[in-house]
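Notes from the 1:1 (GR / supervisor)

We went over the backlog. Supervisor wanted to see one worked example end to end before approving the batch request, so GR pasted a single chain during the call. The sequence is below; no edits were made to it. Supervisor asked that the structure be written out right there so they could see what the output format looks like.
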Amino acid sequence: MTQSVVVQVGQCGNQVGCRFWDLALREHAAVNKKGIYDEALSSFFRNIDTRSGGDGPDIYKGKICSLKARALLIDMEEGVVNEILQGPLRDVFDSKQLITDVSGSGNNWAVGHKLYGYQYRENIVEKLRKTAEHCDCLQCFFIIHSMGGGTGSGLGTFVLNLLEDEFPEVYRFVTSVYPSGEDDVITSPYNSVLAMKELNEHADCVLPIENESLFDIVNKIHQMINSGKLGSTVKQNSLVTSSAGSAKTVQEKPFDAMNNIVANLLLNLTSSARFEGSLNMDLNEISMNLVPFPRLHYLVSSLTPLYTLADVNVPSRRLDQMFSDAFSRDHQLIQADPKHSLYLACALLVRGNVQVSDLRRNIERLKPSLRFVSWNQEGWKTGLCSVPPVGHSHSLLALANNTCVKPTFIELRDRFMKLYKKKAHLHHYLHIDGMEQSCFSEAISSLSDLIEEYNELDATKGGPRTDPLRLKIAV
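Structure output shown during the call:
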């Protein structure tokens, strides 16, 4: 069984990470009734013998003694990390997994990347190596960060570079939360574009998520429940959007529901690596099958259902609806419409009591309405995991490598240029050692090149759909 390490950077990264570890523990507790440390648990948790005090030896078999997350928590402000350490998850982490400062990065990519990056480099590398040493077969690093702030964007992408240098053979999956147009951080377009250049060059897969989409989804669910439209079919306090019944005893924070959606995305993404299934999909298969060109590694994700169904016996009609929902605008985690854009490839990760025949039937049903590139008309990758999420009978995560991400990048470039044309706020960045104006021009050039690559693909989608020519054999 393979292991993965989660690196959560900045305020947003640590808040999402906190929800991820809480939901992961609940998911394993629902399956692992006897409290045995098994291979599924080992993928994200160590089992430590703490009877001798301190950081004892790992226990590989038998009863759970003390679970420790395979994680590194980094933030240049102490607030969020301290909150985690004082909360119900405090025993899942230890002080050797934390790197904090007090002054923060001041919403400045250069402070996070150039200043704190070099200041904490040795410390970060040492803690990453220690975490990796506890893994038998380290397959993937998951970085969780935001693009708009200083620590998440700057130090988050610095850590990404370090991972490529120190662990070149280990996959790097990045969950990046993009700011909305109404973001309260004025310099977020600078931070996001500077971070994008690093993501383009050093990540294996990026899962872009927009705050606006998460906000819309949570609002829509609350409206549906409160209006009574789905009263008979939806349980209040869905696991996806609510923390009810979790380890948390304090009142929910405003962003917990949004962060839960991102945490569920990561749980579903790794379900095949943790649990049995008739058609398992490993993380390396996602990168191999969904990323045909190295820079076009941005995967649009959609999650369904987004609420907990009250009945467990799900008719096939509703199962089919779940597949349809995964391709609708309302279920995308960025503001995008993949149905009207071009697919390079698509993965469907299904959990629960779903048959291969259900999967094939729905792919055949949906195929005519989806446009794939001419050279990859059968670009589907599928996975079936038999263990459903807690409170659900089944779920579906769709990952699409689709040109529909382009408008998000174009809007980001436009917001960047509005500031950059006036050279507004540049002096805050340029006074940091190692930061030059060429960093800005290279970053916007990298983003423009990426947009152009998507444009070239989009230019091919207007052509007629024809079967590729086949060799005729004379008899």
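Supervisor's comment: The chain has a mean pLDDT of 88.
Batch request approved.
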